[in-house]
Design goal:
Blueprint: E1 3-4, E2 19-20, H1 36-60, E3 63-70, H2 76-84, E4 92-95, H3 102-105, H4 111-114, E5 122-127, H5 133-140, H6 145-164, E6 167-175, H7 178-190, H8 200-207, H9 209-223, E7 230-234, H10 238-251
Length: about 290
């Protein structure tokens, strides 16, 4: 697609990228967003490819780490959900660590993440990762300046060490504009069933949008390394962001179709056995 230049972004904008021309009317609506019909067909195709990639990772014994970072509402959880929807949780698993315990706070910072790293034949999706330190923790004042500086020195070396040991590290940053983030927060606030998603941390993050931009820029300055570069996913259009991210993830592997052939289902083995009366069991009410 051809990029069209725009005027400079306002101070504190997260990521400013030229917007692509939506020149495929069969794909995009009048607002320039992906049509649901096109998205549904494409996500189904990509999910089939993710299953093939899963078999390939198993067969080759690969160890894959995929990191998803970015602002609240940027769409990290949505793309992770679509990746795992059809794949096996034994091969493709999610690591979404909670707040560290008192004991974990005394450990080497990376220690609690190490135990979630993949073994051979696994892909681990980190829904936020060790980059909490240079983003959320730094912005909210949950770490000291010294801890922040040490992280920026150590993270590149930690990732280079992982790569040298055979771990494939892929890092995605989901970028959402201030206006779109506000719209999504307002949508959550308007619906009681979604209001639980709007936390005090989210409100603080929205207020500190510019400081989060500073955190992201500093993080990239130190950790956008050749062995494990950052890939930015513009996500004001959530559906497009999912397709773009999954397509890029698949492109990182020269995989082939090693899916197993259909098996022959065995017949039931007969044996003398009399089951107890079905009336002795308690069933849920048949409302539907």
């Amino acid at each position: 697609m051809v990029a069209v230049g725009k005027k400079s972004p306002p101070t504190g904008a997260d990521d400013w990228v030229a917007k692509p021309v939506r020149d495929h009317p069969e794909r995009y609506n009048k607002q320039g967003k992906l049509k649901g019909s096109f998205y549904d067909a494409e996500i189904e195709r990509l999910q089939e490819q993710l299953v093939l990639l899963q078999y390939w990772i198993q067969q080759q014994g690969l160890k894959v780490v995929v990191i998803f970072e970015g602002r609240g509402t940027a769409g990290k959880g949505g793309v992770i959900k679509r990746i795992t929807e059809r794949t096996s949780p034994r091969t493709v698993r999610v690591a979404a660590l909670p707040k560290p315990t008192e004991r974990e706070q005394t450990q080497w910072y990376f220690q609690r993440y190490v135990e979630h790293l993949p073994a051979g034949g696994e892909m681990v999706l980190f829904d936020r990762s060790w980059y909490n330190r240079s983003n959320v923790e730094w912005v909210m004042g949950f770490c000291t300046a010294e801890e922040h500086e040490e992280f920026l020195r150590t993270a590149p070396e930690f990732e280079r060490m992982l790569v040298r040991s055979g771990v494939i590290v892929i890092k995605y940053w989901f970028s959402v504009s201030y206006e779109e983030q506000r719209r999504r927060f307002q949508a959550r606030n308007a619906e009681p069933i979604k209001r639980w998603k709007l936390s005090d941390m989210d409100l603080a993050e929205h207020r500190l949008y510019v400081k989060y931009s500073m955190a992201k820029d500093t993080t990239f300055q130190y950790t956008d390394i050749k062995q494990a570069p950052w890939y930015v996913v513009p996500s004001d259009d959530k559906k497009a962001a999912r397709l773009n991210c999954i397509s890029h993830l698949l492109s990182q592997f020269d995989y082939t179709d090693v899916a197993p052939e259909p098996v022959v289902l065995p017949e039931m083995e007969q044996m003398p056995y009399v089951r107890p009366p079905i009336q002795e069991q308690t069933f849920v009410p048949q409302l539907f």
